[in-house]
Each structure stands twice: as structure tokens, then as C-alpha cells.
Amino acid sequence: MFDVIRTVNDKISTACKRSGRYPDDVKLVAVSKRFPVQRITEAYESGLRIFGESKAQELRDKVGVLPENIEWHFIGHLQTNKVKYVVPFAKLIHSVDSIHLAQAISAYAVKNGHKPNVLMEVNTSDEESKFGFNVENSCEAYQQINKLQGLHICGLMTMAPFVSEEDEIRKAFRKLKKIQKQLKQMDLGLDVRELSMGMSQDYEIAIEEGSTMVRIGTAIFGKREAV
After folding, report:
1. 226: in domain
2. Each residue of 173-184: pLDDT tens digit?
3. Is the Cβ–Cβ distance between 122 and 95 less than 8 Å?
4. Cα separation, 194 vs 173, whole angstroms
5. How far apart are CA 145 and CA 188, in angstroms?
6. Which of 54, 89, 197, 201 has minimal CB crowding within 10 Å?
């Protein structure tokens, strides 16, 4: 696994150089969902420290049996009734896709003394199958979430469409970068430093378009078994 991870890191570094950025500007989130503890341990022993899960109970269970210095991220759709399984453990929640969810995270965090970092998910490809805020109302929604107690919103997340046309992929990423720019230009003191975009099939493009976090599973762990 060490060689596989080194190849991914080399591609991240090369993409950064192409876009005039430093490799340290981009965090690698190893997407370990549906992979057993043994495989995560192998990746950990190969140097990875940030892992992403998409099922609330799976995150909770893995935290209890893996090294304490792992930085856990939650990257999947989060139901409000499962916030309690995620907030105590996740350093960053990538997928806040509604005001209702943000309010649920806020309420639980305030009551239990947590303050998780979160990202607002935006549906930049306008696909009905995807969660996330519309591009048009994303700036207003960001400001609403920023006012909630018990959480810290620090950026944006999106998924590009699963297509072969590079222009369509870049378009989705550029929309998120544009929203980030708009939020910064409002000069309201908003923290919008993180852009979580890019997965195994498109992370090099995402880095070229400004991503600060890439979520990579298949390129590290291989294909998951069908469930």
C-alpha cells in the first residue's frame, strides 16, 4: 500500500506544481468507508492520518478500535437523527447540505459541549441525485450557518459529475471556487478557507481548480465490494 499512497501523493504534488501551488496546501483524505479496520491500519502504517467515513455508525465503531491520533472526517449524507454518532468524533463534517441539518448539529453540539468544523455542500452540477445547496442560494445559506452556535463553518464541498468530459468537471469545480470568492468579497469576516473537491477520478483537476482537500478512496484502497 505504501507504493500506492506514494503514487497518489506524487500526483497531488505534480498537480500543485502545474497550478503554482505548494503540495502542503492540499490535504489527502483517505476515504475508508466500507473497508475493514485491517485495511485502514495498513494505510495508517503507510503514513496516512486523515480518514473519511460516510456512515455514521461505521465512523463511531471504527474510532473505538483505531489509533487515537487519526483525524476523522465525515463525508457522507448525514441524517439529523444520527448527528450524535458523528459530532463527537469527526474533526470535520464535509456534508452540511441543509439549514435543518446545520441546526441539528448546532443543537447537539451546544448541548454536549462540542464545536465541530463543518463545510457546506453545494450541488454545483445541478444533478437531482445529489444533495447540497443550490449555487444561487449558497452565499445566503453560508451566512445563515455561520450565525449558528456550536459549530464552525470553514469552507465548501462539492462533487463533480461522473462524466468523461473534462470541461464539465472543471465547470463544477470552478463554480465552487467562484462561490468562495464571492463570500470573501462580502468582507463579513467569514472563514471560507477550505474547498473539499476532487475524488479518485478527478482529484488532479480539482487541485488545478483550487481544491484544498481531496477525498480519495478507490485510488488508495481499490474497489469496494458490492453491498
Report:
1. no
2. 999 999 999 999
3. no
4. 13
5. 13
6. 201
CATH number of the domain that residue 56 is part of:
3.20.20.10
Determine how β-strand 152-157 pairs with β-strand 117-121: parallel
Domain count, the chain: 1
State the pLDDT confidence band at 108, using cuts at 50, 70 and 90: very high
Strand ranges (DSSP E) for the chain?
Answer: 27-31, 50-53, 71-74, 92-96, 117-121, 152-157, 194-196, 213-216
- Within the chain, residue ranges assigned H as helices are 2-18, 37-45, 56-63, 99-112, 138-146, 166-185, 203-208, 218-221
Helix (H) or strand (E) holding 65: none
Sign of CA dihedral 193, 196, 197, 198: positive
**79-101 burial, b if ≥16 CB within 10 A, otherwise e?**
eeebbebbbbbbebbbbbbbeeb
For 116-165, write each residue's pLDDT tens digit: 999 999 999 988 889 999 999 999 999 999 999 999 999 999 999 999 99
